[in-house]
């Protein structure tokens, strides 16, 4: 059962991929929430009050009653485990350890393998970081293409990232692919990714995070 019926409070700016993961999840599960601007130009994260919520001073953070959680993928897991059973959406947090491990495997892959390879391209072309060179962008583009081939092969054998139906794994991976398609680079064709991503984009909850890159 959810720990409280109170509205969840979410700290974070909506142009952050990690905050977008949480927004999409909340929208999918139809959980009422209030988002408070934090991070980037909004500041807040360097205050003692925020540090008490997240000692890393990063976004996102959620507070659900007396429960405070940081790290975006951990928040996704918590929300699915807590709210999916009674959401009426047909979504669920797997009770089978093997199924759960498959979903979490792809969530961790997004955080540790996929997004880190793309980050230099994003910071170089969108955020215009002077520390990112053309050579770094070219190298990262090649590395991302390798990761995309890995994902495309997975989607060749299953319609969604971790199986036959939409799961919590599709959220972080889907948002990373969304950013890739919005980056001003040459995009090679990946048939199965394109088909899967088209299904994700059609989901009502995705529209809340389908924003321009800034």
Question: How would you describe the overall organization of this protein?
Answer:
There is one protein chain. The chain has 214 residues and is of the alpha+beta class. It is globular and about 45 Å long. The model has no long low-confidence stretch (mean pLDDT 96).
Which features characterize this protein?
single chain; 214 residues; alpha+beta; four-stranded mixed beta sheet; 50% helix
Tell me, rounded to a whole number, the average pLDDT.
96
Distance between the termini: 37 Å
**Proportion in β-strands:** 5-15%
Category from helices, strands and their pairing: alpha+beta
Order of helices and strands: EHEHEEHHHHH
Side by side, the strands of the main sheet go: 2-1-3-4
**Helix proportion:** 40-55%
Biggest sheet character? 4 strands, mixed
**Morphology:** globular
Which residues form runs of ≥5 with pLDDT under 50? none
Helix and strand arrangement:
Elements: E1 8-11, H1 17-29, E2 33-36, H2 48-53, E3 61-64, E4 67-70, H3 72-83, H4 97-125, H5 134-157, H6 170-182, H7 191-201
Parallel strand pairs: 1-2
Antiparallel strand pairs: 1-3, 3-4
Helix pairs in contact: 1-3, 1-6, 4-5, 4-6, 5-7
Short description:
This protein is an alpha+beta fold. The chain is built from seven helices and four strands.
């Amino acid at each position: 059962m959810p720990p409280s019926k109170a509205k969840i409070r979410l700290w974070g700016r909506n142009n952050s991929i990690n905050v977008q993961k949480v927004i999409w999840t909340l929208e999918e599960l139809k959980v009422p929430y209030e988002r408070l601007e934090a991070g980037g130009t909004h500041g807040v994260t360097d205050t003692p009050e925020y540090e008490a919520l997240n000692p890393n001073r990063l976004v996102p953070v959620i507070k659900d009653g007396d429960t405070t959680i940081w790290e975006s993928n951990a928040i996704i897991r918590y929300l699915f485990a807590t709210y999916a059973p009674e959401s009426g959406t047909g979504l669920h947090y797997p009770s089978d350890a093997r199924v759960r491990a498959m979903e979490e495997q792809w969530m961790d892959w997004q955080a540790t393998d996929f997004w880190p390879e793309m980050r230099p391209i994003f910071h170089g072309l969108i955020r215009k970081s002077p520390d990112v060179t053309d050579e770094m962008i070219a190298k990262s583009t090649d590395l991302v293409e390798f990761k995309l081939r890995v994902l495309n092969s997975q989607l060749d054998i299953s319609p969604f990232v971790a199986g036959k139906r939409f799961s919590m794994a599709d959220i972080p991976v889907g948002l990373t692919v969304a950013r890739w398609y919005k980056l001003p680079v040459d995009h090679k064709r990946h048939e199965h990714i394109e088909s899967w991503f088209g299904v994700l984009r059609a989901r009502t909850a995705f529209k809340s995070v389908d924003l321009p890159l800034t």
